[in-house]
Amino acid sequence: MPARANRNLLIVAGVLLVGAVGRAPITSVGPLVADIRHDLGLTSAASGLLTTLPLLAFSVFSLIAPRIAGRIGLERSLGLALVLLAGGIVVRSLPTQLWTGTLAVGAAIACFNVLLPGVVKRDFPDRVAQLTGGYSATQSVVAAVASGTAVPLAAMAGGWRYALGGWALLVLVAVAVWVPQLRHGPASAARPAVRRAPLPWRSPLAWQVTAFMGMQSLCFYVLVAWLPTLEREHGIAAAVAGWHLFASLAASVVANLTVPVLIRRLPDQRLIGAGCAACIGLGIAGLQWLPWTAGYALAAVLVTGFGAGMALVVCLSLFSLRTRDDSQTAALSAMAQAVGYLLAASGPVLIGALRDLSGSWTVPVAALCAMAGLMAVAAFLAGRSATVTVAAWTPLPETSGRLQSSERP
After folding, report:
1. Helices (H), ranges, 29-167
2. How far is 48 from 77, CA to CA, in rounded Å?
3. Would you say 182 and 75 are in contact if contact means Cβ atoms under 8 Å apart?
4. Which pLDDT band, with edges at 50, 70 and 90, does 161 fall under?
5. What is the CA angle 43-249-121, rounded to 5?
6. Alpha-carbon span 348 to 220, nearest angstrom
7. Contact in structure between 244 and 297 (CB atoms under 8 Å)
8. Residues of 335-351 as b/e, b for ≥16 C-beta within 10 angstroms?
């Protein structure tokens, strides 16, 4: 028992550290785009690709990650992804290697996104929401810190290359903590053989989870890309707008820690999913149509950030709650993220185009509110107590919406 407890403790620590490095290498880029653009002579389109390329990598490599895990196991796949992330961060900071490193960073994080829910499902089936909320909160906190400290670090370290490259140190810490898991290959006494379930393309429920995943990701990345600009065009000072983005991420951390409690107490996830979509829609609407003062804007930002934090935990939990084992969890996660991040990658571009065509934020904000409405419908459908199969969804027992061992076959 002590050996098993120590192993579980190491797995939890490893999952939290993987979560910690799962967004920071991307959020640290935004504040430094102006420096990168000036140093490398990038066009506006190329600068935008710095934030879009990782999302496209998420979409493509989400389909590849389960295949790798099926061959070498979840543990070794995540270890390989950590090494790839550390290498990508370093390479990204080298002369002429910006795009190669950025692609490697996106590929590594795609593996985290797909495979971590499978680890949680397999090793902690009765604690899915708690551990999902824990690593989501860790991810949000470190992402906020990365965004807020990027410019000061660049000034202290001597440039954007060092500020971005420094995150490789935290990744190496994660590698060190994850090393004990690497002895578990595709099959061992401690881990059963990893089966690779087919992607559930023909399952309506899988598409409902996918729709929820895509729309919540689109709303999040649109806000990350355009919230400061929207606020500045409404008269909010640039410094205040920057702090509002930080406040939004902080509110998402509170939601990350709150949602697991709600998931355990409710029979399914329909109301929680619809509620987070309502928070996002109301917050976005408030940003456009509430009286434009810093106080009202902050209130709207907090509501939106809380809704986005709720949506992330619900979405990641659904990958486990709508499947019966870790291989099915990885398959559903791969499908939902491949399609979802492709949709998310288009969001900032389309919203920016609507802003340019309409000449104001009214039409783009209305489009985002409509997206939040569709997200609520998808959440209500995906939140039912059911399990994904290739052909259709199969109802589970009434208690299956709770995080109990009855979810397992």
Report:
1. 33-40, 44-72, 74-92, 98-123, 128-157, 160-165
2. 30
3. yes
4. very high
5. 105
6. 10
7. yes
8. bbbbbbbbbbbbbbeeb
> Full-prediction pTM beyond 0.85?
no
Residue spans in the chain of domains classed CATH 1.20.1250.20: 1-196, 199-395
Question: Which residue type sits at 115?
Answer: L
Give the start-end residues of each E strand in 304-371. Answer: none
CA distance 403 to 248: 28
From CA 355, how far away is CA 370, in angstroms rounded? 16
Q: What are phi and psi of 226, to 5 degrees?
A: -120, -10
Each residue of 70-122: pLDDT tens digit? 888 889 999 999 999 999 999 999 988 999 999 999 999 999 988 888 888 88
Task: Single out the residue of 110, 201, 129 nearest to residue 388, CA to CA.
Answer: 201
Q: Which residues pair with 388 in a beta bridge?
A: 393
How confident is the model over 256-269, as pLDDT tens digits?
A: 889 988 988 888 99
> Architecture of 1-196 per CATH?
Up-down Bundle (1.20)
Residue 350 and residue 348: Cα distance in Å, rounded?
Answer: 6
Query: Considering the chain, what is the average pLDDT of its residues?
Result: 84
List of residues 6+ apart from 287 with CB closer than 8 A: 227, 230, 231, 297, 300, 301, 304, 365
Query: Nearest 5 degrees, angle CA 37-CA 40-CA 43?
Result: 50
393-395 vs 386-388, strand pairing mode: antiparallel
- Check pLDDT > 80 for residue 145: yes
pLDDT (0 to 100) of residue 104:
96
Instruction: Quickly list DSSP for 330-345.
Output: HHHHHHHHHHHHHHHH
Query: Which CATH entry fits the domain spanning 199-395: 3.40.50.150, 3.40.50.2000, 3.40.50.920, 1.20.1250.20?
Result: 1.20.1250.20
3-class DSSP assignment, residue 409: coil
* CA geometry: angle 377, 383, 388, nearest 5 deg: 110
What would the DSSP string read from start to end of 207-251? HHHHHHHHHHHHHHHHHHHHHHHHHHHTT--HHHHHHHHHHHHHH
CA atoms of 76 and 184, how far apart (whole Å): 7
Closest CA to 31 of 196, 163, 193: 163
